[in-house]
Write a structure and sequence with these properties.
The protein has 557 residues and is α/β, with parallel strands linked by helices. It has helices spanning 3-9, 16-25, 72-92, 95-98, 105-109, 140-145, 158-162, 200-210, 227-234, 255-272, 299-318, 320-347, 355-364, 366-377, 387-394, 407-425, 433-436, 471-480, 490-498, 504-514, 524-540; strands at 30-31, 45-46, 113-118, 126-131, 136-139, 165-170, 179-182, 213-219, 243-248, 281-283, 488-489, 521-522.
Length: 557
Amino acid sequence: MRPISALLTGTVTAASGPMDDYAHQHGYPPYPHPHYDHRQGGPRSPVSPVPQSRTMIGGGGSFANLIHDDYRPVMDSLKDIYRRKIRPLETTYNFEEFHSAPLTDSDIEAKPIVLLIGQYSTTDRFVAVMSGIESRVIPGNAAAMTADLPFRGLNKFGQAFLTRFQVSQCPSPILENMTLIDTPGILAGNKQRIERGYDFTKTIEWFAERADLILLFFDSYKLDISDEFKSSIYALKGQEEKVRVILNKSDMVSQQQLMRVYGALMWSLGKVIQTPEVMRVYLSSFWIKKPVNAFEDCRTLLDAEQADLVRDLKELPRNAAIRKVNEIVKRARQAKVHAYIIGHLKKEMPAVFGKHSRQQELIRDLDKEFNKLQQCHGIPEGDFPNVDKFRQSLRAYKFENFSKVKEPILLAVDEALGVDLPKIMRRFPQGNTLESDPLQTNPFSGIVSPTVWTAGSEIPPSYFHFSSVDRASAAPIFQSLYPINDKISGAAARPYLMSTGIAVEVLAKIWSLADWDSDGQMTLDEFSVALHLVRAVENGGEEVLPETLPRTMIPCY
């Protein structure tokens, strides 16, 4: 597993030593992450102490755009529009054979997918890391036949691929809102001649079409792009808006060297990714255990870059339903152009004699036929498929068996694009949900609990002094919540604090007291004070909480 996927799912921690102690002291069992079951002697890490029933990234524990009750009718409408008005066009003109299989309900309802691609092998297979009640592994053949999973389209890659694909499920807060697809390492040098047994580039293309975010990994001291990696990047054409580049292990070079490495990477990418826009590159370092020889002169920059990456991941669940509509629109436009091409080739075929020679002529001059269609129907040049790939696919068919252009089917797609899908877009709330999210300030504000937990015991005055705060015990819990710039957000702290069983309005007061600088985030000192106040409530009830935090509780006093 790539370090970032392990970090996100909570299977490893930045401070593995303290976390081992914490798990042992609090009775947490070892965490056998299923991703490693196919590798002998693979590492196993303890479970994070964060309660697994809540969501850490995405905020609030709900998948706002896909499984929230307000969005269920939207998704049902989207599935209905696709089934009635778009899928018939795909079926009539063999869209599946030239592009991709029809979408299923599970494809449309799927959680956001993050595709991880890198050059150096960390596994010998594709692994879908998903949320589950318990840790288990679903083999590729079974996963491809399961209607509830969005992988039925993988059957077309055959047995050779399915034996190298698996679904690994585990109870992780991150995975409640997204699915991670970890890919095999890209072969380099002489290894490129090794036969995988399946079309690696085609499988990358299949996953890329369905991914919401694609992360390309480079190491700071290994910037070479192999032929197979180059082919994989070419397979991402049309998905450029999803691609982000991660320059990993950036702390293994000095600040001056990092500047040179960054420039070299951008130069290499410019030769492979044929777009005028500059690709977003995150400078990061995802170590399971940081090496002793790591450079610290760019630590502030790396922390800021990691914060940007986490922010991108946070936005995935919030905008998932809108992206689903966008993907359906792209697919409908692609299917419509495909129908025009197939119908045009059918129309150009003779009725009786010379069919074979005419077909060969049309295949040879396919680029000219595309130009005719572009002028006739006003189709943008960028909407046409790759002419060489399409020409190769056409050789397997007899044009005389193609379907003619059927106006009713095309009109149904036009209605979906012009009326139905815009109507769905108007049903989404307007405005920036990230800015208005109360979890960004106080994660418990605006929530009312039906009952208030109380207990009864007196709290001595000396308790409200920072010297009585058990900062050492709070540190491993704080680290398990993945602080950014030495602070954790309300969304990150909320699941753990909720697990105490204290009423949310009491937790809201505790947060307000402990967050003494009112920035909506907590340092280790603030978090330690919050846990200290939690214990006070557990011993004496909510009435023991002061109206304002005593100055003696702030370490600078």
